[in-house]
């Protein structure tokens, strides 16, 4: 329903990384697009994308790229932008190249003529650097945990989580308990990023599994829930997806 009320072109290109979890996301969205009456083509990385002799971005079947749905994090594109920038540009170095030039992620996602789902502004709330800002604006709010760009005496005393500001899927997280005891730590690809420090609030444990309830939206409204679990305190990309059944209160109490 959301796609049918969107401004997407008839053909939507789905951009994803080489990742099993993103395979499932991409195939799910491809199915939704087809059911909505669109054509959908999955692109891994930027493979199969190139420039025609007019400098337009096209796929390997000569379809022009006009609408993109992506699993890529905006931070990945921003990292590429930082690597390619010299500090002298007045605008991002986006290419409109010759047929032999390689297409980069930034050449796709930052093109004015390409409509990208999701919008660029989501890079702000998805970055954990927003958490200390929120805490400074709304200290002690019941929906927030104390967060800071630096360790505070309160965090050191009561325990904290150290998280990379743009990390994903539980990579490079440290959980420190009272008296500076190490509760859990993970490796990953975000070890070079700046970190934030957040009040320790461990996930609930059922039997030998720590559980995390994840919700998502569709078209700005609640769209569903999934249940992730792991024997460690940090939910990661390879953590299990558990069966989840939702009951009305009346059904629950009758059982």
Fold blueprint:
Elements: E1 11-16, H1 20-35, E2 39-44, E3 50-51, E4 57-58, E5 67-70, H2 74-84, H3 105-109, E6 115-117, H4 130-137, E7 147-148, H5 153-158, E8 160-164, E9 174-176, E10 182-185, E11 195-199, E12 205-206, E13 209-218, E14 221-230, E15 240-242, H6 249-254
Parallel strand pairs: 1-2, 1-5, 5-6
Antiparallel strand pairs: 3-4, 7-11, 8-9, 8-11, 9-10, 12-13, 13-14, 14-15
Unreliable spans: none
Percent of residues in β-strands: 25-35%
Biggest sheet, open or closed, and with what strands and sense?
A: 5 strands, antiparallel
Distance between the termini: 35 Å
Strand numbers in spatial order across the main sheet? 7-11-8-9-10
**Mean pLDDT rating:** 91
Shape: globular
The secondary-structure element order is: EHEEEEHHEHEHEEEEEEEEH
What proportion of the residues is helical, as a percent range? Answer: 10-25%
How big is the Rg? 21 Å
Summing up helix and strand content along with how strands pair, one would put the structural category as: alpha+beta
Helix run count: 6
Number of strands: 15
């Amino acid at each position: 329903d959301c796609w049918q009320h969107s401004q997407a072109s008839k053909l939507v290109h789905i951009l994803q990384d080489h990742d099993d979890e993103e395979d499932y996301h991409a195939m799910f969205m491809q199915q939704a697009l087809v059911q909505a009456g669109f054509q959908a083509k999955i692109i891994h990385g930027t493979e199969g994308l190139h420039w025609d002799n007019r400098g337009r971005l096209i796929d390997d079947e000569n379809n022009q790229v006009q609408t993109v749905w992506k699993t890529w994090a905006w931070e990945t594109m921003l990292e590429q932008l930082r690597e390619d920038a010299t500090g002298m540009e007045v605008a991002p170095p986006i290419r409109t190249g010759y047929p032999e030039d390689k297409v980069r992620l930034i050449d796709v996602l930052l093109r004015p003529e390409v409509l990208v789902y999701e919008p660029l502004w989501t890079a702000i709330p998805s970055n954990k650097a927003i958490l200390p800002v929120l805490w400074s604006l709304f200290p002690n709010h019941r929906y927030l945990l104390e967060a800071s760009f630096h360790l505070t005496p309160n965090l050191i005393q009561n325990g904290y989580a150290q998280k990379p500001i743009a990390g994903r899927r539980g990579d490079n997280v440290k959980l420190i308990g009272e008296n500076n005891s190490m509760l859990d730590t993970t490796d990953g690809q975000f070890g070079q990023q700046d970190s934030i420090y957040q009040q320790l609030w461990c996930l609930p444990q059922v039997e030998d599994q720590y559980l995390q309830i994840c919700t998502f939206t569709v078209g700005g409204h609640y769209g569903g829930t999934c249940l992730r679990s792991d024997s460690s305190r940090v939910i990661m990309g390879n953590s299990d997806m558990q069966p989840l059944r939702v009951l009305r209160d009346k059904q629950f109490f009758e059982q």
